[in-house]
Amino acid sequence: MLDDKVCIITGGSRGIGRAIAIEFSAQGAQVAVIYNGNPEKANQTVEECMKISGKKAKAYKCNVGNFNECSDVVKEIIKDFGTIDVLVNNAGITKDKLLLTMSDDDFNEVISVNLGGVFNMTKNCCRTFTKQRSGKIINISSIAALDGNAGQTNYSASKAGIIGFTKSTAKELASRNICCNAIAPGFIETDMTKELSANSELIDKIPLKRIGKAEEVASLAAYLCNNDYITGQVIRIDGGLTI
Ligand code: NAP
């Protein structure tokens, strides 16, 4: 259980991040929900979290790709909540194109938000974690990092970078009792994958014959927060796509 733990969830306004905020609240957590462009959705998540937990929850606007914004938002969250116990680096974007037509802006923006965002948030939270000698960091990667995906060189590279970052962070911070793991989802039903649920060819390739639910990823994230002996791991959640 996450009773009164202070949990930051980036990209908590929609999709997987929203489901994680709600699951953590159901386990008694206080949540700080970070969004970038959707204050209404972020506030809806926060209201639902408070209704479920009866605990404090608040939305914060921050572009995770910007180091200074991350530094400011982490300071503000510590002022509001007193500390940080869990950081979920979930915010992510896609700008899919075949390599031949991908611009350097498409490449750099995805790397900056998806991978830069993980560095920016983790770096700004880890002083608090090391001081209190505890903390959980969960990074949302993707099976695209492990298997590659045509049309996603930028996205796959950003998500593969997250795996290296996760393992190195786990090694660096283990002596301070801080665990850092990555989750690699397959196809999960959210705004990011709207058009996929009707793709019968894709669904046929998934042994469990369906797209995953954001709530299923959220329960894995909560499991990792509740365990003190798993660190540096990448856990796939993909309906068996690659067995
Ligand atoms: P989504 O529905 O598109 O939601 C993305 C979330 O990220 C939103 O809350 C969005 O905030 C936030 N965000 C985007 N850019 C941001 C920025 N620069 N700064 C701060 N927040 C930002 O995506 P999702 O499907 O839930 O995906 C969540 C994570 O899981 C992503 O990292 C994604 O790569 C990963 N993933 C998803 C799948 C899948 O099948 N869905 C599979 C593998 C991995 P606003 O609402 O304010 O825009």
Helix content: 40-55%
Q: How large, in whole angstroms, is the Cα Rg?
A: 17 Å
CATH topology term: Rossmann fold
Annotation, overall tally of beta strands: 7
- β-strand percent reads 15-25%
Q: What's the order of the H and E elements? A: EHEHEHEHEHHEHHE
Q: Which structural class matches the secondary elements?
A: alpha/beta
Largest sheet composition: 7 strands, parallel
N-to-C span: 32 Å
**Count of discrete alpha- or pi-helical segments spanning 4 or more residues:** 8
List keywords for this structure.
16% strand; binds NADP nicotinamide-adenine-dinucleotide phosphate; 243 residues; single chain; 7 strands; Rossmann fold; seven-stranded parallel beta sheet; alpha/beta; 8 helices
Can you walk me through this structure?
The longest helix has 29 residues. It contains eight helices and seven strands. Helices cover 47% and strands 16% of the residues. It is of the alpha/beta class and 243 residues long. Helix 1 packs parallel to helix 2 and helix 1 packs across helix 8. It is globular. A seven-stranded parallel beta sheet has the order 3-2-1-4-5-6-7, sandwiched between helices. It has one domain: 3-Layer(aba) Sandwich (Rossmann fold). The structure holds NADP nicotinamide-adenine-dinucleotide phosphate (NAP). The site of NADP nicotinamide-adenine-dinucleotide phosphate (NAP) has 31 residues, from helix 1 and strand 2. The site of NADP nicotinamide-adenine-dinucleotide phosphate has 31 residues, from helix 1 and strand 2.
